[in-house]
Amino acid sequence: MDLQFAFAVNNDGQFEKKHFGDADKYLIYKLESNKLVLLVEEPNKFKLLDEKIEHGSKRKGNAIIEFLKGKKVNVLVSRQFGKNIKLINEHFIPVIISSEKPDTIKAGILKSSI
Q: Which domain holds residue 62?
């Protein structure tokens, strides 16, 4: 099984203590031959979807899910997930991390994939 990861980061490329759907952008990686290869950096165009009506709306959650499924992502990496975690669990493997640094997380992923 190919593994593709979406890292939820801010504009500086760091993880913040925010829900996955509130990230500024997603870094999408593919695990290939014990290396994480950055495929694409995608701005989170759904960040403000329905936020004036309801924070963490189901519509916003579904939009992000469909977008990332289209990118063949199967693992979501973030410091927090919101109330749409039940939806996320149906489609992805959510991973909650404590580090702000993507390089630390990438090293951990590579270490555990050996």
A: 4-113
Structural domain count, the chain: 1
Tokens of 46: 């759904």
Q: Which two tokens stand for residue 11?
A: 């504009």
What is the DSSP track for 7-23?
Answer: EEE-TTS---SSBGGG-
Mention every residue, 6+ apart, whose C-beta is less than 8 A from residue 105: 7, 15, 77, 97, 99
Q: What is the pTM for the complete model shown?
A: 0.92
Token couple for 14: 């760091």
The domain that holds 57 is classified in CATH as 3.30.420.130
- 50-80 residue pLDDT tens: 766 666 678 899 999 999 999 999 999 999 9
